[in-house]
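Ops channel
N.P.: pipeline sanity check, posting one input/output pair.
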């Protein structure tokens, strides 16, 4: 309770500080240059200290004067040694009804708090160390629900890694990184940090990072750490890596095409203690993704930006899911979004289309498994924001629209139509849990309405209304429940 009260006061302070960023600066104040850390946060105002003299030590003058053009509490450079510090404080109130989640249908209100401070130290461009802590908590959850494993992680170590540059030329660099870290690649349909959840997925292991003018290539071998990554939840003790599970592979991005990127990847998932109740086993996923943005239609009335994102993947391996024997895996996924935003008209309206196909199994229990396993996806971003489903045995047809009444306010809407890829296969929840359906294919439709207001780069408020109308696959099964609804309010302060 004391921590939550403290966080509330810090939120108020953050709002006041972020409001101050928008006022006119005086001769004794200046806005710093963009100092972006790993979380993409911008630094705030700094005010010079008038009490310093010319005889003051250099490190004090760099901390409290405007010479360095950096927030003294956020970024500093002392010769070859530099450091950056910051964090995020986020609060969300949730009201939800009748989601597909453990505990069955019901209504609940609850609060989520998350605190993510971080510190990075670097020696020139040769080596760096990054540490990020997490304190995630929940309160007010009503019966019949119990706290989700990904909602609580008290006073833990989210990231702790070190990297060193092992090769540097005029055109390319190669770094080695070791330790606890996040995995975020491409559109995050398969490997994501799970930023919407109260916790974030983290992993522990090794990574080689190659960067050149036209290519970025990562090689990695990681073990899952916290509950969000599929490990045993430890809400009151330090998380440890799961020694039975490895995620490894190569992820490359070619930037040689103007205004777009081409991703090529091969990811291997290995669970030596696989479970009949879970999709895991040993799976290899090979895929590619093409994404980009391009200014189009130069006429005044229809000028705007065209965006696209298409990804396809094929998966093979062996798994004992729903079987006593390991069966061959042969599955795939296709995802595509396209959108267009008008740039020279009031409200800057945008519209787009959504399509996703994750294969299912026509004959569960046969010699093959044809259900695509999404591993560590950012499901909230793709398969409805009410978070009913993962992308396994799922077809999603959708449309989306957006308005931007002001530079600070954005309005987003999405509508999804969900079918099962195979009626004989299961319904898979956002956590990947398999639920028996009715033999019908239509799962339901979802409407999402989101409003986001950025008071400043450091402080934002988001409101959401989400509604799900269940189809025959749910209403004619033991999963039957009234239609689902979710309302939330979220406040985020970055510092």
């Amino acid at each position: 309770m004391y921590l939550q009260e403290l966080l509330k006061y810090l939120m108020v302070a953050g709002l006041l500080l972020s409001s101050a960023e928008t006022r006119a600066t005086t001769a004794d104040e200046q806005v710093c240059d963009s100092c972006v850390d790993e979380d993409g946060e911008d630094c705030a105002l700094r005010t010079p200290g008038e009490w310093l003299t010319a005889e003051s030590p250099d490190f004090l003058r760099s901390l409290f004067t405007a010479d360095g053009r950096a927030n003294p509490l956020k970024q500093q450079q002392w010769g070859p040694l530099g450091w950056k510090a910051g964090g995020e404080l986020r609060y969300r109130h949730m009201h939800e009804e009748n989601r597909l989640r453990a505990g069955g249908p019901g209504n609940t209100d609850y609060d989520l708090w998350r605190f993510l401070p971080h510190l990075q130290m670097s020696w020139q461009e040769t080596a760096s160390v990054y540490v990020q802590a997490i304190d995630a908590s929940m309160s007010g959850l009503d019966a019949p629900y119990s706290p989700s494993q990904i909602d609580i992680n008290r006073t833990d170590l989210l990231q702790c890694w070190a990297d060193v540059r092992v090769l540097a030329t005029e055109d390319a660099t190669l770094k080695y990184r070791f330790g606890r870290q996040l995995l975020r690649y491409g559109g995050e349909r398969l490997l994501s940090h799970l930023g919407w959840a109260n916790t974030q997925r983290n992993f522990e292991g090794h990574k080689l990072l190659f960067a050149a003018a036209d290519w970025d290539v990562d090689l990695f071998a990681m073990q899952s750490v916290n509950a969000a990554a599929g490990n045993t939840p430890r809400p009151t003790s330090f998380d440890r890596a799961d020694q039975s599970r490895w995620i490894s592979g190569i992820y490359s991005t070619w930037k040689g095409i103007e205004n777009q990127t081409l991703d090529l990847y091969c990811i291997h998932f290995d669970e030596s203690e696989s479970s009949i109740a879970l999709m895991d086993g040993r799976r290899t996923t090979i895929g590619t993704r093409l994404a980009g943005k391009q200014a189009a239609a130069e006429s005044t009335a229809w000028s705007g930006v065209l965006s696209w994102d298409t990804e396809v993947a094929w998966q093979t391996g062996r798994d004992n899911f729903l079987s006593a024997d390991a069966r061959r895996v042969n599955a795939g996924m296709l995802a595509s979004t396209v959108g267009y935003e008008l740039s020279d008209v009031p409200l800057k309206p945008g519209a787009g289309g959504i399509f996703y196909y994750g294969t299912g199994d026509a004959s569960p229990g046969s010699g093959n498994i044809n259900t695509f396993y999404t591993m560590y996806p950012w499901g909230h971003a793709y398969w409805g924001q009410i978070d009913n489903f993962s992308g396994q045995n799922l077809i999603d047809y959708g449309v989306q629209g957006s308005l931007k009444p002001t530079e600070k306010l954005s309005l987003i809407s999405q509508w999804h139509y969900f079918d099962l890829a195979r009626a004989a296969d299961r319904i898979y929840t956002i956590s990947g849990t398999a639920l028996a359906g009715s033999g019908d294919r239509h799962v339901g439709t979802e409407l999402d309405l989101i409003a986001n207001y950025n008071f400043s780069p450091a402080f934002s408020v988001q409101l959401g209304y989400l509604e799900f109308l269940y189809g025959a696959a749910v209403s004619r099964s033991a999963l039957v429940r009234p239609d689902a609804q979710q309302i939330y309010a979220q406040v985020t302060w970055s510092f």
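N.P.: looks fine end to end. The mean pLDDT is 85.
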